[in-house]
């Protein structure tokens, strides 16, 4: 074995040992940062989950498949009264033969406690840190308006129903957009509302997500338009995609805001030299049908690395 081969072999062995150590013992410092927690002491008037299951058997069985079951099953939490994490001490409820006034039910006026209770655990979760300032929160939406803990739709993050019909139940004006000839395939299941929008936070009224580079989320899928380019088309940087495109659906090809391409281009280029003129040195006359489809020649309209006129 040559020296180079021996060095390469040794590096592979060390890397394998390091990966094995991480898988077995966890990343360095993980246990120091997140030490296993002992079960929280029971509150006065507490009961165990088994006591709740005596009456609420169907909810208890369904809860075993619920993400919140980690409160009971994980070594980090080890709660034997995880129901009470949300509903409060249950002994008075039991002693009262199921009296709903003796426990937190989140019904009626108690529905206002829902957000406070959820955020007591989830306020540091990614995407929830600014919920109180989000448009949904400012419009008095509760977590329970979209989520349900005990009877959620399958393959959803505890939603009452699948994401698309849930969003459209409030944003009804978008239902017509997705029925237009050219639209993002949301109703077909290829795209979800949350692929573009962040429902729990966002100072922007549209609650748009951004790409990893901080640009509009459109470039996450339409990567060919992202750039940077040697020759930038100014509107794509200064005004964004929505300057030319309808994001949900349009009656126009390519989801444009105008029915004809030259109408859209002329909103900026009316005074551009040689666009409307019929005499030399005019390159083309856009009043002539021959020159009215601008992108026939200016094919790289989002930006180009080869032509300042976006010809290639």
Spatial strand order of the main sheet: 1-3
Question: What is the percent of helical residues?
Answer: 25-40%
What count of helical segments does DSSP give? 15
Number of strands: 4
Residues in β-strands, percent: under 5%
Describe the largest sheet. 2 strands, antiparallel
Poorly predicted parts: 19-40
What is the CA–CA distance across the termini?
53 Å
The shape is elongated
Query: In terms of structural class, how would the helical and strand content be classed?
Result: mainly alpha
The run of helices and strands is HHHHHHHHHHHEHHEHEHE
Q: For the CA atoms, what is the radius of gyration?
A: 29 Å
Average pLDDT rating: 79
Give an overview of the whole structure:
This protein is an all-alpha fold and 312 residues long. Among the domains are: 30 residues, no CATH class; 84 residues, no CATH class; 82 residues, no CATH class. Helices cover 32% and strands 3% of the residues. It is built from 15 helices and four strands. The strands form two sheets. The chain has a two-stranded antiparallel ribbon. The protein has a two-stranded antiparallel ribbon with strand order 2-4. The longest helix has 23 residues. The radius of gyration is 29 Å and the shape is elongated. About 7% of the residues have low confidence.
């Amino acid at each position: 074995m040559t020296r180079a081969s021996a060095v390469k072999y040794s590096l592979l062995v060390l890397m394998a040992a390091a990966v094995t150590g991480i898988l077995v013992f966890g990343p360095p410092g993980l246990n120091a940062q997140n030490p296993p927690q002992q079960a929280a002491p029971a509150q006065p008037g507490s009961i165990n989950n088994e006591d709740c299951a005596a009456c609420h058997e169907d909810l208890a069985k369904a809860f075993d498949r619920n993400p919140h079951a980690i409160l009971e099953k994980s070594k980090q939490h080890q709660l034997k009264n995880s129901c009470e994490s949300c509903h409060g001490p249950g002994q008075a409820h039991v002693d009262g033969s199921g009296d709903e006034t003796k426990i937190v039910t989140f019904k009626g006026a108690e529905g206002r406690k829902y957000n406070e209770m959820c955020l007591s655990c989830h306020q540091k979760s990614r995407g929830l840190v600014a919920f109180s300032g989000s448009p949904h929160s400012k419009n008095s939406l509760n977590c329970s308006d979209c989520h349900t803990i005990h009877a959620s739709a399958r393959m959803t993050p505890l939603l009452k129903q699948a994401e698309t019909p849930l969003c459209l139940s409030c944003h009804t004006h978008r239902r017509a957009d997705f029925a237009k000839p050219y639209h993002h395939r949301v109703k077909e299941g290829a795209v979800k509302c949350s692929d573009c929008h962040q429902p729990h936070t966002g100072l922007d009224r549209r609650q748009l997500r951004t790409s990893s580079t901080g640009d509009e989320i459109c470039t996450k899928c339409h990567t060919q338009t992202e750039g940077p380019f040697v020759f930038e088309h100014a509107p794509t940087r200064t005004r964004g995609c929505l300057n030319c495109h309808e994001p949900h659906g349009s009656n126009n090809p390519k989801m444009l805001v105008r029915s004809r391409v030259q109408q859209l281009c002329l909103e900026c280029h009316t005074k551009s030299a040689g666009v409307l003129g019929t005499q030399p040195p005019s390159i083309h006359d856009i009043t002539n049908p021959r020159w009215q489809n601008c992108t026939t020649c200016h094919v790289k309209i989002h930006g180009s690395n080869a032509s300042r006129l976006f010809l290639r």
